[in-house]
Amino acid sequence: MLPFTRDRFFELFAAYNEAIWPAIPIFYLLAMIATLAAWRRHPQAGCVVSGALAVMWAWAGLVYHGLFFTRINPAAWAFAFGFLLQAVIWAFQAGSRTAFGFEDRSPVRAMAGWAMIAYALLVYPALGLLSGEAYPALPMFGVAPCPLVIFTLGLMTWASKVHWWVWIVPLVWAIIGGSAAILLSVPQDWALPIAALAALALRFKGLGKGHSSRADGAPLH
């Protein structure tokens, strides 16, 4: 059982979204910059993506979990710690030239990553509206943890190299967020564990291997 009701959960999101405007469009812009850098394999893509994710994970940990979600769920203090820890990990990745790169990806991984990113940015809020919720009582990308984790998994699916310990917090949240989505009947969050399983399969089970090509069709050397 959860220590709060579904109505209380969405009331909290309404207060949260109203308090943080205009953070949502700012995070959408940040996400688009990170996505473009990763897709185009910019020489500094690892730094750009890791830096953007560090900012978004820090926000979710400090502002959403720490300042708001703790009002209705004492466990949110632990969630805040986990998200802030992941933000530190991303900040470390941003400062390391060899820790996170996008030099190579197969067509399968490219399509899977795009599916997760598009879902987090576009489909997620649309499903929320279709389920009967309306802004501001609507979890939104960038400021809500579940779509942020789906977006993160999409970028990690594109990456040519990701240390195993970078996966821990996103995968743990996929379990927590996915189970809460079922209990609270939040259908847009049901994709979270599915995205996690798909990302793991592509990264660690040898799926989607093969020679990659650039977005403009030229082979990547």
List keywords for this structure.
221 residues, mainly alpha, globular, disordered C terminus, transmembrane
Give the helices and strands, then pairings.
Elements: H1 6-20, H2 23-39, H3 45-68, H4 76-94, H5 107-130, H6 145-158, H7 168-184, H8 191-204
How does this model look, in words?
The protein has 221 residues and is an all-alpha fold. It has one domain. It has 8 helices and no strands. Helix 2 runs antiparallel to helix 3. The longest helix is centred in the N-terminal third of the chain and has 24 residues. It is globular. The N and C termini lie far apart (53 Å). The C terminus is likely disordered.
Q: Identify the quaternary structure here.
A: single chain
| DSSP summary, beta strand count | 0
Query: Over the alpha carbons, how many angstroms does the gyration radius reach?
Result: 17 Å
- Helicity, as a percent range: 55-70%
Low-confidence stretches: 210-221
In whole angstroms, the N-to-C terminal distance is 53 Å
Structural class call reads mainly alpha
Q: Work out the helix count.
A: 8
Proportion of beta-strand residues: under 5%
- Morphology: globular
Please describe the biggest sheet, giving its number of strands, its sense, and whether it closes into a barrel: none
Question: What is the string of SSEs from the N terminus onward?
Answer: HHHHHHHH
